[in-house]
Amino acid sequence: MGAADSQALLQQAQTALEAGDWVEARAGFGRVLAVGDSAEARAGLAQALQWLGQFDSAIDARERAFAAFRHRRMPLEASEQARWLAFLHGAVNGNAAAAMGWFARAEALIDGLDESVEHGWLAFDRAPLVQDRDERERLADTALRIARAHGDLDLESGALALLGESYVYSGRIAEGMKLIDQAMAAVSSGEVRAVVTAGDIYCRLLSACERIGDVRRAEQWIAVAERFATWSGYALVSTSCRMHYGAILSEIGQWREAEEELLAAVRVSERSYRGMRTFPLVRLAELRVRQGRFEEAERLLEGNDWHPLARRSRATIALARGELALAEDLIDLCLGGEDRSQPACAPLLELLVEVQLTRSDLGGAKNTLAALTAVADRWSDGRAAAYAALAAGRVAAAEDDASAVTRFHAALERFASLDLAFEAARSRLELARAAAPHAAEMARAEARIALRTSSNSVPPAMRTSPRRSCASSAARAAVPGQGVPAS
């Protein structure tokens, strides 16, 4: 077989790889390597093996490709293999030391070279690893600038989504979601060619929507980007997207579907992306708390207590059990890692109001309510406003203020308009309780509606105790990876 034939086989395998046909790509690159060694074929084989979940073989193929490119004095190509090796060791094996070593190798190989797209991908990959948000956004901006300078639409779209997600997490919600929508438009139109990049963008959309409770936007994009709704063929997307999507389903009260997605994410992380295992587990624990299955939630949280979502779930359990000092301490720990003026803190602040009122700390509850109201007013955030209305209703009820009914009704309307069925059900139940002394028939009707319309969204504990409830927000933690969100 001549060089032209070998090149044709290589091109066929590359085409299969770009189309996401991992099995055919693996076979195709194998045919090339049967003829003779090829760094390009080993790199392509590694990619196919990686998405087929054959990670040890993928690492071996990457290392061989890296060595071959180094031997041929091709630093850009060798750097790319080093980046992927950093990803595999970090996200798949949970080996942070090996991940950072390979990442440093990738940087060293192109240090001092003229700027190239590879410099942009390095900035893109580094961004999720840094804790400082300003530095993260600087790196995303760098990746975006380089992508545009070199005409790399995949990198440009990925950087837009990364930058947008960072903006959302820092409170610049409208600006951030505009960037993510732009990246998603490139995905849905087919402009983004790489399945990996498209999956990364899709996951960032779901991550941002989970963070701010934007259920409607997630549903609308899911309807457009159907090819990723099946989560097939890409284990990392399966883990990351499923956990974010599962959390969103939990928000809207579709608990059976949420459980399916979260359990699937846990299974994938257990057999492959072990570095990400904590993140679907804490979301599944949160769902168990909402279902009133506290003992199961606690088992899921064992060893994961460091995560803010775990602390919030434990705080909710502590409140339900009357362990009020513990509940407040755990909420303070959650808020300690966040800027309390950000909309994402609204659910935690509402939960804190409930804890403080249960402790008969009316003054503290009023102060927390004032902070929550300021958040809603500052950002004109609908979800924060809904939580503020719910908290205001609680404070009014504690003071025997007749306005409690009006405030709970406002919370109900706001949550319902946002498609947040679980929180709407909570508000309706509080409305029924507040109305009971003065309008018993209305209260019974509201309670019946709440239980009938959300029978799978209201845990048994909530049906018997006015103080057993849950809160909803999202938190972030970085994991070594190829830019896919794993919070």
Mean of pLDDT: 87
In CATH, the topology of the largest domain is named Serine Threonine Protein Phosphatase 5, Tetratricopeptide repeat
Helix content: over 70%
Low-pLDDT residue intervals, each spanning 5 or more residues: 229-233, 456-486
Gyration radius, rounded: 25 Å
Explain this structure to me?
With 487 residues, the chain is mainly alpha-helical. It has 4 domains: 1-113, Tetratricopeptide repeat domain (Serine Threonine Protein Phosphatase 5, Tetratricopeptide repeat), CATH 1.25.40.10; 116-229, Serine Threonine Protein Phosphatase 5, Tetratricopeptide repeat (Alpha Horseshoe); 239-337; 361-455. The protein contains 26 helices and no strands. Helix 19 (324-336) runs antiparallel to helix 20 and helix 22 (382-398) packs antiparallel against helix 23. It is elongated and about 90 Å long. Mean pLDDT is 87; it is low at 229-233 and 456-486.
Q: What's a quick, concise take on this entry?
A:
The chain is built from 26 helices and no strands. With 487 residues, it is mostly helical.
How are the elements arranged and paired?
Elements: H1 3-18, H2 22-35, H3 39-51, H4 55-71, H5 75-92, H6 96-110, H7 117-126, H8 133-150, H9 153-169, H10 173-188, H11 195-212, H12 215-224, H13 226-229, H14 235-251, H15 255-271, H16 278-290, H17 294-301, H18 308-320, H19 324-336, H20 346-358, H21 362-379, H22 382-398, H23 403-417, H24 421-435, H25 440-453, H26 460-464
